[in-house]
Design goal:
Helix content: 25-40%
Order of helices and strands: EEEHEEHEHHHHEHEHEEHHHEE
Number of helices: 11
Strand order of the largest sheet: 6-7-8-3-9-10-12-11
Largest sheet: 8 strands, mixed
Distance between the termini: 28 Å
Radius of gyration: 21 Å
Structural class: alpha/beta
Shape: globular
Number of strands: 12
């Protein structure tokens, strides 16, 4: 299968303010060496605790955040350091839907202006073609012409997120980064948006990077899953395989903490001990060793590589076997 996105050794280190005079310059190691690929037409789910670097990684792939090191290849083109003019042209092929629909839509703009903005910025249509295209996009996401003159505050959260999806679709992109697109919505509305995204992917041939901490949603929509912990990928594989048999101790604990609709006394709830270490001063060796139930001395000294342990399954653990 051909890859639309490939990232290699990708890093983002944010410098903390101060420290220049004392020589004690500190960094937040938000993303610290990620290798992954996303195939055409695939939904790649990225999961992990808050602060693990998921959103930073997604925005780096779109070059909304500049990487510290590493390589980003989009549609067979290295976009790691191309200039702003070329990047603007490429932005037609990659879009993003943000977590909070109300904060991502301008309160001063009506729906028609919001969806028209990318069309006007890139000049892809004649002036008289823009309004029919906007109505077409709104109908694709379950809205219609009756919503054109509404402001975001006049609509529900689900309707606002549909407008955000319509805006992302306006330029016929190949890749859409979905950054926690349902976390700010009611549960019933979440299901509607997930089903809408699934239908659009099939009908338009889209590729998704789906970022979330809601494991049930990720399981439902994803083809493959990557699990992040403290700026690193610790497990990667087919979605159903990872959920059926998580191999990394962190993934096991993460999935073991999913609330079950039916209480089963035979199931043991796995609760991680301790707190997530600071990304300013991450642990040596395996970053999970401070909370891992099977950690040994080697875990403190040697960082495990993300290696293929089965066909299509990659795990970063010394003792996965």
């Amino acid at each position: 299968m051909t890859n639309l996105v490939e990232v290699r050794s990708l890093k983002k280190h944010f410098r903390l303010p101060g420290g220049w005079l004392s020589g004690n310059v500190r960094f937040v190691y938000a993303v610290d060496g990620i290798d992954l690929s996303i195939a055409y037409g695939e939904t790649f789910g990225l999961v992990g605790e808050s602060g693990c670097g998921k959103t930073t990684l997604g925005r780096m792939i779109l070059r909304l955040i500049e990487p510290t090191e590493g390589t980003i290849v989009f549609d067979k083109q290295d976009i790691t350091s191309i200039d702003k003019r070329k990047m603007k042209s490429l932005r037609r092929q990659m879009q993003i839907v943000f977590q909070n629909p109300l904060s991502s839509l301008s309160p001063r703009f009506r729906v028609e202006q919001i969806v028209a903005e990318p069309l006007m910025t890139h000049g892809v249509l004649e002036k008289d073609e823009i309004r029919p295209r906007i109505i077409e996009l709104l109908e694709q996401v379950g809205l219609g012409a009756q919503h054109l003159d509404r402001f975001p505050h006049e609509m529900s959260g689900g309707q606002c997120q549909r407008v955000a999806v319509a805006r992302a679709l306006a330029l016929n992109p190949k890749l859409i980064v979905l950054d926690e697109p349902t976390s700010a919505l009611d549960v019933s509305v979440q299901a509607q948006i997930i089903n809408l995204l699934d239908e659009l992917k099939k009908s338009l041939g889209l590729t998704y990077l789906f970022i979330s901490h809601d494991l049930n949603v990720v399981q439902h929509i994803s083809d493959r899953i990557g699990v992040m912990y403290l700026g690193k990928l610790v497990e990667l594989g087919d979605a159903q395989d990872v959920f059926d048999e998580p191999l990394h101790p962190y993934t096991q604990a993460l999935f073991g903490a999913i609330p079950m609709p039916v209480v089963d006394d035979t199931l043991e709830l796995k609760i991680l001990e301790g707190n997530v270490p600071s990304p300013v001063n991450p642990p040596s060796g395996c970053r999970f060793h401070t909370r891992c139930p099977i950690a040994q001395h080697i875990c403190q000294e040697t960082e495990p590589a993300l290696r293929e342990v089965r066909s299509g399954r990659h795990v970063a653990c010394h003792f996965v076997e």
